[in-house]
Amino acid sequence: MLSNDNDSSANGTASSIDVVRKKLLGYVGFANLPNQVHRKSVKKGFEFTAMVVGESGLGKSTLVNTLFNTALYPPKENTEPSNETVQTVEIQSITSDIEENGVKLRLTVVDTPGFGDFVNNEESWKPILDDIESRFDAYLEQENRVNRRKMVDNRIHACIYFIMATGHALKPLDIEFMRRLHTRVNLIPVIAKADTLTEEEVVAFKQRILADIQHHKIQIYQAPTYEYDDEETMAENKEIMSKIPFAVVGSDKEVEINGRRVRGRSYPWGLIEVDNEDHCDFVKLRQMLIRTHMEELKEFTNNILYENYRTEKLQAMGIQQDPSVFKEVNPVQKMEEERMAHEQKLSKMEAEMKTVFQAKVQEKEAKLKQSEEELYARHKEMKEALDRQRLELEEKRRRLESGRPMTPEKSKKKGFSFNK
Ligand SMILES: Nc1nc2c(ncn2[C@@H]2O[C@H](COP(=O)(O)OP(=O)(O)OP(=O)(O)O)[C@@H](O)[C@H]2O)c(=O)[nH]1
What ranges does the record list as Basic and acidic residues composition bias (predicted)? Predict the structure, then answer.
């Protein structure tokens, strides 16, 4: 917003002209951009696709319902796994539109029933990997279309991997799955039904899991840190990351404690509150997935995981990339190159100027030499004439001194008359 403030300047020169001074009353800077993005995003809504993988009965559906505070998964009538008929891992996806304080989230949860339920689970990871890659393929196909206005992003942004709370170590099934999938999806390992372990057991189990993950060079999701993050955000991120693998407890039922109704699991020995950070890491997992890292997870999926897959896929199809197109320009190197080019140009100009100067000097020297020679010849001529004149005069003087009369002819000629 601008206001006109017609104060005539105290300066004598400007007093005759009406100087209009304008003051900014409102904020117009580009620091407002995030608010624009925010408004647009809220209007458009958000989309997020999470996959849950883990053996049957580890509490996947319960946790998803607890996470998004919605009955995404209807109550199961028969919780017994029916793997007599199912011989492979199935991929089931449920989409739901959730709204909270006017912000819309289109949430898709991809379940993988059957994972780890068979006698031979060696290839349990394969249908899941195929599904993730086919989603990348679908996105790639859309990117190659002429009209890309309506792109549907079905890619998996996070995979919550449920580890059975054995308290010992990762099972070969867990290792194999994570090893096969870590380059294709953001892996977020969680310890399922953590309420079945004591606090000390959880701490020891987490350490063992992380050691196994490191040993097998598995890349689980790591949130990036930014220099511009304030200290509070950095501390929050650090705290969230320190809880991985999250020890979670799920419950979509409320229980009463001291007159308060909380989501939790009630036992004869006490109550486990889902939303109590002293009881489990559920809050931290939800914070990461929904509050702090949803966009980061999507960005990492798009910029790193999908991009790598795309490159591999296109290269496998025989499409070659001219590496010089992406030759990284080092600013220091670029400056040095420019400086050298400039110096070369300068020395070329200097050499040209030198040649021209030398030619001009030579020309001038030749001219000077010529006029010097001319002068010299003239001088010589004049000198000779003078010498001749001097000799004549000397001759005359000698004659005069010896008393010999000058020849009449000569005296007549000069207008003199000698009477001697
Ligand atoms: N102790 C405990 N039990 C839980 C927890 N979460 C879920 N359960 C119970 O575990 C059983 C299985 O839970 P589900 O959420 O159906 O597990 P699931 O992994 O979705 O099972 P499938 O659909 O068969 O793959 C239910 O009886 C839940 O009440 C938990 O955190 N702790």
Answer: 379-410
Ligand 1 pocket mutation pick from 62, 64, 68, 198 by most atoms within 8 angstroms of CB: 62
Q: Indicate whether 257 and 361 sit together in one domain.
A: no
Cβ neighbours, 10 Å, residue 357: 10
Answer yes or no: do 356 and 282 share one domain. Answer: no
The Å distance, Cα 57 to ligand 1 centre, comes to: 5
Whether the model clears a pTM of 0.80, i.e. scores above it, the answer is: no
Residues 126/91, Cβ–Cβ less than 8 Å: no
Amino acid identity of 7? D
Contact present, 194 and 159 (Cβ < 8 Å): no
Give the whole-angstrom CA distance, residue 39 versus residue 263.
33
ipTM field: 0.96
How many angstroms does the Cα of residue 56 sit away from the middle of ligand 1? Answer: 8
- Asked whether residue 295 is domain-assigned, the answer is yes
User: Is residue 287 lining ligand 1, measured as CB closer than 6 Å?
Assistant: no
Distance CA 20, CA 3 (A): 10
Q: Is 263 in the pocket of ligand 1 (CB under 6 A)?
A: no
63 CA distance to ligand 1 middle (Å): 8
Count of domains for the chain:
2
Domain boundary among 316, 345, 380: 316
Ligand 1 centroid to residue 61 C-alpha, Å: 7
Q: Token pair for residue 34? A: 């995030």
Helix segments in 104-263, DSSP class H: 125-143, 172-181, 199-215, 231-242
pLDDT tens digits, one per residue of 104-157:
888 899 999 888 877 777 788 999 999 999 999 999 999 888 888 888 899 999
- Identify whether residues 134 and 270 lie together within a single domain: yes
Range list of H helices, 26-160? 33-44, 60-67, 125-143
The CATH number assigned to the domain holding 307 equals 3.40.50.300
Q: How far is the CA of 183 from the centre of ligand 1 (A)?
A: 28
Containing structural domain, residue 373: 331-411
| Strand, helix or coil for residue 111 | strand
- Beta-carbon contacts of residue 12 (< 8 Å; ≥ 6 apart): none
Residue 182 CB less than 6 A away from ligand 1: no
Q: Which of 281, 316, 351 is the last residue of a domain?
A: 316
Ligand 1 proximity of 195 Cβ (cutoff 6 Å)? yes
